[in-house]
Amino acid sequence: MSPDEAVALSFAVLSDLPRIGLTERLHADDPHFLELARSLLPHASRVRTAAAKRGIHAVAWNEPQFPTALLTLSDMPPALWYRGMLDALNVPAVAIVGSRVASPIAIETATRIANDLASRGITVVSGLARGVDSAAHRGALQTGRTAAVLGSGFDHLYPAEHEPLADEIARNGIVLTEYSPDTLPLPWFFPMRNRLISGLSRAVVVIEANEKSGSLITAACALEQGREVMAVPGNVLNGRNRGAHALIRDGAKIVECADDIVEELCGSPPASGTRETALSSASSAVSDDPIVAGMDHGQAYDLDGLAAASGLDNVRLLSRLIDLELQGRIRRVGGGRFIRC
User: Fold this and answer.
1) What is the DSSP string of 264-295?
2) DSSP state of 252
3) Domain count, the chain
4) pLDDT at res. 52
5) Which of 62, 80, 102, 248 could bridge across to 131 with cysteines, CB 3.0–4.6 Å?
């Protein structure tokens, strides 16, 4: 499957692109997918050319620039549409999600934690929604970068009042979606995009979520993907925090500040304000990494091969591969494979 064919698949309707086993079928060059992609190529090419004039680009799953963190998903999107800087996704990321009708204390908490994480070189991921999401984006913008994942195409950004915020995010970070530009913000697209918010991140932090909050969908996706789930405790009297407290009862890490997140993910946290990427610093001193030592120069390895050779599961392996990319010891090539530098 060529990258152009993969991008064309982003125009397919959901009934033609079932999520179950999607990644496996993409890797296997599924004949149905290839036929579908080729039928969509002319339309996709026209839309892609027009979108590029507006600063909207597409990256296919089998291109080196595709986010490494999404390669382990069982339902990886064939392509992503984006505005901004793809390299914002090449560093460790933490998602912050929560109530759309957030209290002032939740807004303040999301802003403060995102600000501190971004100051450490961590990309803050969220969904551009009202409330906690937008507060997290704005907090991160003050000191670093953030990534916004949409539940629609760029022509129908939702909510519309956040278009200026999306513009600001795209200047140094990234706004992205798996949906082609003309896709409407239909209700069932938002739960589906939540798997990308968690998939891009090493941890999901939930702030002020009731028992019916969409944030719990993101947390469930994170658990399924092997990511960490954390939650900020809150007032027990008003019902706003029942969902977050349920996560804590089920074993989610309690978060009061950014240090709690970084310490959980990589041990003792570095001081706030350092530009070293906090989540990769713990392993950057390793001089003889066994993953690199097991890779021959000039040979490309996929995730399954590296997992078998290293004995690591895909989630832990992915974390190490991101660190090794940051250190310049390996690099991505097409088809989700890696080579030794």
Assistant:
1) HHHSSPPPTT--S-HHHHTTTT-SS-HHHHTS
2) P
3) 3
4) 94
5) 102
Q: Within 10 Å of residue 3's Cβ, how many Cβ atoms?
A: 19
The answer on 228 and 108 residing in a single domain is: yes
The one-letter code for the residue type at 108 is E
Residues 139 and 252 in one domain: yes
Q: Which residues contact 233 (CB under 8 A, 6 or more apart)?
A: 241, 244, 245, 248, 254, 256
Domain of 167: which CATH number? 3.40.50.450
Terminal-residue alpha carbon distance, the chain? 26
* Cis amide bond preceding 67, omega within 30: no
Same domain? For 35 and 124 the reply is no
User: Is the CB of residue 235 less than 8 Å from the CB of residue 243?
Assistant: no
pLDDT value at residue 63: 92
Percent of the chain residues topping a pLDDT of 90: 62
pLDDT at 255: 94
Q: Which of 54-58, 140-144, 317-321 has the lowest mean pLDDT?
A: 317-321
pLDDT at position 326: 66
Q: Tell me if 330 is assigned to some domain.
A: yes
Which of 9-23, 24-38, 105-119, 273-287 is predicted most confidently?
Answer: 105-119
70 and 13 housed in the same domain? yes
